[in-house]
Amino acid sequence: MAHTHLARTAPPRRAGAEREQARTTLTAIGDAVITTDIHGQIVYMNPAAEVLLDHAAAPSTGQPLADILKFDGDGGQVPSAAALVTDILQAGAGGHSGSVSAGPVHAPSHRTIVRPDQTAVPVKLMGSALRHHGTVTGAVLVLHDVTREQHYVEQLSWQASHDALTGLVNRREFELRLDALLRRPRQPGREGCLLYLDLDQFKLINDTCGHQAGDEMLREVCRMLQAHLREGDTLARLGGDEFGILLTDCPAGPSARIAEQLRQAGQDLRLDWEGQQLTTGLSIGMVQLIPALNSIQEAMRVADMACYRAKEGGRNRVFIYQPEDIEMTRREGDMDWVRRLRLALEHDRFQLHAQAIRALHTPGDEGLHMEVLLRLCDEEGALVAPGAFIPAAEHYGMMPSIDRWVIHNTLKALAQHQRTPGAMAVHACAINLSGTSLGDDSLLKYIRTALTESGVEPALLCFEITETSAISHLPNAVRLMKELQQLGCRFALDDFGAGMSSFTYLKHLPVHYLKIDGAFVKDLLHDPTSQAMVEMVHRIGHVMGKQTIAEFAESDAIVDALRLIGVDYAQGYAVARPVPLAQLLQLQGTPGTPGTPGTPGTKQPPNELS
Asked: What is the pLDDT of residues 486-501, one digit of tens each?
């Protein structure tokens, strides 16, 4: 009998233990848990629910859930807590038989609860019906505070669309807003305006006062710009020291006045930094967003060009784009070249060609003397001569990158040639350096490193610089030449004789070769003045211990005349045509092979020099 009594009383004790264990678990978890009866009155709240709802559990027990749990938007689009409990109870009414259990889970939803002090808390809410022996006895709601997650998502979203330093929208967000503006109908005369701004002499602030001063100047400029814009206008940092402004629903006249006000404010801006007063200025390109500008790329490209014209015109000014501006159209072509050149560098679309140079008074058995020439392989696979793209590359500061590409790939080809058994000797390989590269202090280190890594003898390299570039960068040019000469490299002064000051500067430039300007050489046979210039350059060069090279030797008759004058070397189509560098190195100087020294030449189009 005792045994039977124990069997009857054990289940209540186990049930009590299970309830206590459940309460302990609910007390420990971080999510708010609330249970109600079938009338929507509160039966239980765990400590997390007390904190979240800012209501104590004891006085809340027996109260309608709708009096304690309030949602933002109650009575409108958002169902009340009472309606939510009703939905949960109805969903669980189908249920199944059994002891105490939870019914089907109500679909999770995101709500915002409003606490007694009117503070709002975003939550993820889940609900389920409670059953006992198949009968619905109430509902359980679980609320997860998503404040931290929401803040994290908002932070990520903000970072994706804003500049960290200034807090302005970034280029990506700016272009999205520009695209939205271009897509919507624009009233004629009130299409809106795009301003592209560039800080003048900003690099000087970074170089002389450090990047912290530069950062503070950027922030100060942002504050100044925002103070002069209308509500609804967009100001963005596009990158570096470049900014973009969208003036929405703004006619051309007011847009121009705003641009001028910004320019004047930039000119007046002063920043006190460690005892110094730092100044800057704004070059502004202005573009009215007329219907012809119907894409982000086109609008940004034209605005960038207008800004460039403002800088080119003397900085600290506003340039207003006019579609009929012929000069602007030419600059737009330059910008297209810049895009193509960037792609060429990224995808290795450049090619190296070379043209052999012939010695006129020696057998030429010291080895191959050549000049490396650059070609661009366009999207259709056609080769483009440098005359088509070098001006744009020089205008937009791309020549240092291109020069480095040429140096790297020339050394790579020469190194491979040196390792080839039976390869002919190379006497000199001329590589052109742009004027921009002459002013680049890091070029010397680059060349030294490249020579060391390639294993090519420095004595094989002869760097060609133009006379005008050398004079424009005289101190840097002399320093670079002397440093590389110590390694064993040689130098040639290209286009010599084009300037009347040539001979004055020649004594300052430690060069081995003078390349006589081809404009004189090609007219040598029928222009006495050209003949006199060739003779004079050659004689003065020899007096100063330089060897001479005549460019544009386009016929055998010109080559014979150069030989009679005493010029040391000839270069041109009468000597050899340009061919791919690898091909010239593989020919190994076989007599009569096109593109090698000793090849008979006939009158050809002018040679394409880099």
From this structure: 999 999 988 776 544 4
C-beta atoms surrounding 345 within 10 Å: 15
CA 111 to centroid of chain Cα atoms: 41
What would the two tokens of residue 298 be? Answer: 């086109």
Neighbour-count burial of 2, counting CB atoms closer than 10 A to its CB (0-12 exposed, 13-18 middle, 19+ buried) = exposed
Would you state the pLDDT for residue 305? 85
User: Which residues lie below 8 Å from residue 446, measured CB to CB, with a gap of 6+?
Assistant: 404, 407
How far apart (Å, rounded) are the C-alpha atoms in residues 123 and 115? 12
The stretches of 419-517 forming alpha helices (DSSP H) are 435-438, 443-454, 467-472, 474-487, 502-506
| Residue 52: alpha-carbon gap to chain centroid | 47
Q: Which residues of the chain have pLDDT under 70?
A: 1-25, 27-28, 74-78, 94-107, 323-334, 364-365, 497-505, 587-610
Query: Which pTM was predicted?
Result: 0.48
211-227 helix and 252-268 helix, angle to the nearest 10 degrees: 140
Contacts of 212 (CB under 8 A, 6+ apart): none
What's the distance, Cα to Cα, between the start and end of the chain in Å? 113
Distance CA 576, CA 579 (A): 9
What is the pLDDT at residue 608? 39
| 3-state class (DSSP) for residue 120 | strand
